Structure formats: structure tokens, C-alpha cells
Amino acid sequence: MGTRPLLRYEAPQGRRVNVLGAYAPFGPQRRFVWASRLASEGKLDSPAFLDFVCRDLLGVAGGLAALDRRARRPPRRRARPCTIVLDNYGVHHSKVVKAALPKLAALGVAFYYLPPYSPKLNLIEPQWNVLKYHRLQERSFTTGPALKAAVDAALLERTAELQVHAVHLPAVA
């Protein structure tokens, strides 16, 4: 009879990585934008989501705080309108996000909410599928930073692939 192997138990706390992402498959250049953080670095709540939208999608230096400061002076509209398609994650429908909608509209940004239970309409879902099931096949990491490093490496790799395979269309005037 063989001996039973003993495995050291490692509590999963601190080994969760949250990722915010946006995928723009159309337009002059395909874009895949993301930001990741360990769960221990803070929740992905409404202010974090709006900060991601302002900083990473719209290029507003200073993020959400700058958007709040812009409310006191006339905001500068985008040259082209921007519509951000969102699923029905609770943060996307929060009071904080709804309060920011007029400020975003003044910049030329609108949110469009997908119908409930419509993952096939959400164009970023296939990107998450590739990341989860093809890029991150190893599922066991001993530390949160090791998991975050693996997630970030997979995201960087996927971003590079999407840019290489992007169809460059002429800019619309």
C-alpha cells in the first residue's frame, strides 16, 4: 500500500485579481484597454469604475477627480462622440454612476446598457474567454502577486495580438 500524500493548505484569501476592461473592435484602431488590481488593493466599486472610464478610456488626466473638478468650468467635448456599452453589473447602475452621467454627457460620452442575460451581445466576453481558458490554464498560484503577474502577462499578450490583427480603417471625419 502506498502512502497518502500530504498537501500544505493555503488559504485563498488575498489571491483574487479583479480586472476592468474595455474592448473597441471597430473604428480607426481596435483597442483593448484594461486595469487589474489585487482584491487587497481595494474594491472595484463605482468610483473605481468611473476612474477607469475617465482615465483609461477617455484619457482624462487625473481620472474621476478631474471629472469632478471639470464640473465647475465648462468641459471640453470630445471631437467624436463615444458610446460605452455596459453589461448589467450592479456597479454600472449605481447611484454614483448615474450621478456622473450628465458630466460624461457634457464630454460627449454616453452609456448604453445591454439587455439582461445577453452575453452574446457583449463583445468583450470572447476576450475574457480567451484569457480564462487559453492564456491562464494554470489556475493555482501561491500568492496574490504571482496571480496578478500571470493575469497581467496574459492581458498584455492578448492586447498585442489584438493590435497586430486589427483592421486599420480610415478615420471618419
Offer a quick outline of the entry.
The protein has 173 residues and is an alpha+beta fold. It contains five helices and four strands.
What does this structure look like?
With 173 residues, the chain is α+β, with helices and mostly antiparallel strands. The protein is 37% helix and 15% strand. The chain contains 5 helices and 4 strands; from the N terminus they run E-E-H-H-E-H-E-H-H. It has helices at residues 46-57, 63-70, 95-106, 125-135, 144-164; strands at residues 17-24, 31-38, 82-86, 109-113. Strands 1-2 form a two-stranded antiparallel sheet. It has a two-stranded parallel ribbon with strand order 3-4. A hairpin with a 6-residue loop joins strand 1 (17-24) and strand 2 (31-38). Helix 4 (125-135) crosses helix 5 (144-164). The longest helix is centred in the last third of the chain and has 21 residues, at 144-164. The termini are far apart.
